[in-house]
Amino acid sequence: MLRKFMLRGRLRKELILKLNLLKPNMLTIKPCLLALALAATSTVSQAATAVSSNDSALSLKNEAVNPKNEAVSQTKSLKAHFSKQFLVGSAINAQQAKRTEQDTDALIITQFNTITPENELKWERIHPKPDAYDFSLSDEYVHYGLANNMFIIGHTLVWHSQTPDWVFENAQGELLTREALLARMKEHIHTVVSRYKGKIKGWDVVNEALNEDGSLRDSKWRQIIGDDFIEKAFTYAHAADPDAKLYYNDYNLYKPEKSAGAAKLIKSLQDKGIPVHGVGLQGHYSLTHPALNELDDALTLFASLGIESMITELDVSVLPFPSEAIQGADISQDLALNKALNPYPDGLPEAQQDALTARYKEIFSVFLTHQDTLTRVTFWGVNDANSWRNNWPMRGRTDYPLLFDRNSEIKPAYRAVMTLTID
Question: Rounded to an integer, what distance in angstroms lies between the CA atom of residue 160 and that of residue 286?
Fold first, then answer.
């Protein structure tokens, strides 16, 4: 499978070179072999956009990796194994940012070189009232990333969800005018981005603004401001921190219609000279979707725009998906618990474990064929116990979507990913 996609990758690269669609520095051919013999205590190379791990982080490796799995790779970490390909990170929650979860703390520091806040920078948390900001958790999060030399992501500035109703209303509860909402958006973005200028290196400026057919979602942002609310958000974010990388982030971008809509959106920003540096493809996948060719095609499409691609919220559910729900990450879906759709409450059977292992290996094989433009892979959660998949789209289920189990021990899927090399 990897050889197949590598061949397609080379053909695609030649075509893009001829079309001059990508910047020269994005087309550098990388070495064909991953380093598999680094000593456990040596300093490992980080991806180009991240700084080197400090000695204290490296010293924690043996605490987070199960000794019986030492033969998996002498590098003993995802960030080291893929150091020449892309950053590898995780979303972290408030308790993890405050370092109150000892097992996951060691795991985060050992395995990852980039972090994303699960909720701490969303509008409802950081700006809960018109005249009040609460930076307590976001400050903890940023401090954690800086202390561990990580590439810090800000998530997210403009989103239709987890944004209080007051944002769109005046004191009488009436919808704001276009000018008033633009002023409120600008003030929020300036306040938050400026506070972390030079510390948060990349921002998910706009999140989930598209419908499944690629058209613009009819959110309150769009209803009140108009279609240009997206370009305004990017313009305000760039003004607040000209050096920060700015991203558009969405789920189901493997779907041809939605990826085409995202590409059209990004191209329109580029044509107006508005900075947009990358696209985040939320990787909320399953054992059966997306089809690998769809993921490959989407990454190829975004590469043609001359921007970075990132897998921003990776997890692979092993549970059957409710027929009445919509695949993706629409958090408004909240279905009643159905025991028939929660088949593994007491542990994952070997057959499903094997299927998860195979699935992760083939997905990462696709990622590696796009290493010239794929700059980051971020898991949505540190271990299975932390995963939102346990409660979406149905609360109270037991899912197993990540590379580390509920005890923060490595799973067979981790071993499979760590064996991947490039021929």
Answer: 25
